[in-house]
Amino acid sequence: MQKVKAEPIDPSKLTLKAGQGQNLHDHNRGKYWHIHLGDVRVGKIYIDFLENEVLGNHPSIDIFINKEYQGRHIGRYAYNMACEQSGLNRVYMHTRKSNIASIRAAEEAGFKEVVDKVFRQVVMVWEK
Ligand SMILES: CC(C)(COP(=O)(O)OP(=O)(O)OC[C@H]1O[C@@H](n2cnc3c(N)ncnc32)[C@H](O)[C@@H]1OP(=O)(O)O)[C@@H](O)C(=O)NCCC(=O)NCCS
Prior knowledge:
With 128 residues, the chain is α+β, with helices and mostly antiparallel strands.
């Protein structure tokens, strides 16, 4: 039987709820939210501060959507909402070149690729 593509979600039903008990590198500045679709908790999104030789200390976003909710456009809205709610002017995203879903979702959320030959992964940036 052919797999039916899941319907995109209604973005007005998506909310971010700030998480408690953060497990982040920089406890003072890192942020963490649960992603809710209506009443259902469908994933998590983090902005943590990481250090590397090109970007120095920089905010980096990471997201995990529960498997059964992937591919329904939650990623693109959640990336954008977390960046907007973070109060930061610039947020980076690092991912493997093979993670097409993550790259596509970030593009739709307004991230642009940062090109630097030193990077082994894809690096993208969202700017307010
Ligand atoms: C990566 C992730 C956040 C993306 O969120 P999502 O809600 O599933 O993504 P979206 O539905 O917004 O967009 C995914 C897009 O990529 C496309 N896509 C997914 N897998 C693909 C593949 N292997 N090849 C080509 N396109 C692909 C989808 O078709 C969709 O595009 P569309 O515009 O045609 O609908 C989510 O799948 C996830 O949590 N994955 C596991 C954890 C992870 O990888 N986190 C990111 C670490 S940086």
